[in-house]
Design goal:
- The protein has 342 residues and is an alpha/beta fold.
- It is 42% helix and 24% strand.
- It is built from 10 helices and 14 strands.
- The strands form 3 sheets. Strands 2, 3, 4, 5, 6, 7, 13 and 14 form an 8-stranded mixed beta sheet that branches. A 4-stranded mixed beta sheet has the order 1-12-9-8.
- β2, α4 and β3 form a beta-alpha-beta unit.
- α2 packs antiparallel against α9, α3 packs parallel to α4 and α6 runs parallel beside α7.
- The relative contact order is 0.15.
- The structure holds tryptophan.
- The site of tryptophan has 13 residues, from α9 and β12.
Length: 342
């Protein structure tokens, strides 16, 4: 086998492994009561495209809030993080629309950095890399298509430059509270003392505003969720009929999260060939597709201190809907001053 075909072969094996893992996670999730599907599988090429359409919706406020925050505070951010050469690593980069605000500003200031966007969707990483190479001549960029945890292993293996990690949008809100602590402590372990992270937290707010953001009248959010069934059909040989499931999303005040579901409109059996079995649904049975936790400032101040970070600054939008908070990695068990919303 020559080098090229060996490389192709190993990529195919990798793809096989991904498919196997996808089949295993679908089988495990659909065997639970209540049924669930891991939300990372929402983001294939079509899912990423639909999520971009969500971000453009009037009702989906997080994107506009964060755009305002980054425009207003790019100077504060660059003053704090831009003193030495660094890797700007973004977890869940998507189309990078908001990140461009920072990229442009950092390049204008002549800061020395390399951009490392990481996203689960290969098409998103490829599209973003091409797009940025055209838009920002001279930007050093090295994209990677993988999940967060592999992304963190990659981060730990990067060169000796310092890291500035972006974890924007409401990505952290998609973890359960327990998962987010595990994630933050793995992130801390992948960093060196003195590195910075900028994390997005969607704040608790008026319930109608929250509900409208996840129930747009054009049905884009419903299509984004139902896309996971189409994906199971295409990639795992499933026979879901997407129109026999209805999207439903609501706020659970006890959990402090928007919870999204696909609800079976009738009693049905669905075969998924790659899982080697079928799954039975009763009428009105839900599949939980995602939780999107909402926070209070006190919640994430505590999270920072517990996980080996010092909250340096918190930046809010003018409506106080959303916060991007800047943390610095400190020696473990260290504590810092209370953060203040500016
Ligand atoms: N991570 C995004 C969020 O929590 C994704 C998202 C937007 C989403 N709308 C959704 C996920 C509706 C499931 C259902 O905001």
């Amino acid at each position: 086998m020559n080098g090229q075909s060996r490389e192709k072969e190993s990529r195919l094996c990798e793809a096989d492994d991904c498919l196997k893992e996808f089949a295993e996670e679908v089988a495990a999730g659909l065997s639970l009561t209540p049924k669930q599907l891991p939300c990372k599988y929402l983001y294939d090429a079509e899912g990423s495209r639909l999520f971009q359409a969500i971000m453009e919706l009037e009702e989906y406020y997080p994107t506009r809030c964060e755009t305002e925050i980054l425009n207003r505070h790019k100077e504060d951010i660059s003053t704090i993080v831009g003193k030495a050469e660094f890797n700007l690593v973004e977890l869940g980069a998507g189309d990078g629309a908001k990140t461009k605000i920072l990229l442009r500003h950092f390049l204008d200031l002549g800061l020395s950095f390399r951009y490392v966007p990481i996203d689960i969707s290969p098409s998103a990483v490829q599209g973003l890399t091409c797009d940025l190479r055209k838009e920002f001549k001279g930007l050093a960029i090295q994209g990677l298509a993988t999940d967060y945890f592999e992304g963190l292993r990659h981060l730990a293996r990067l060169d000796r430059r310092s890291s500035f990690v972006l974890f924007l949008g409401s990505n952290i809100g998609n973890f359960t509270p327990g998962e987010s602590l595990i994630f933050l402590s793995s992130l801390r372990t992948s960093l060196r003392t003195g590195d910075y992270i900028l994390v997005g937290f969607d704040l608790k707010k008026d319930l109608n505003t929250l509900l409208r953001a996840y129930n747009d009248p054009k049905g884009v959010t419903a299509r984004f969720n139902t896309n996971i069934l189409r994906r199971i059909n295409d990639e795992l040989g499933g026979n879901f009929v997407p129109s026999q499931f209805e999207y439903f999303s609501t706020y659970n005040p006890r959990a402090g999260a928007i919870e999204s579901f696909l609800i079976s409109l009738r009693r049905q059996n669905v075969l998924v060939e790659q899982c080697g079995r079928s799954f039975s649904f009763s009428k009105w049975e839900p599949i939980h597709t995602e939780s999107s936790y909402k926070f209070r400032k006190e919640d994430f101040g505590r999270m920072a201190r517990r996980q080996g970070f010092r909250a340096v600054a918190s930046f809010c939008d003018s409506r106080r809907y959303f916060t991007d908070t800047l943390w610095q990695a400190v020696p473990f068990r260290g504590s810092g001053p209370q953060d203040q919303c500016v």
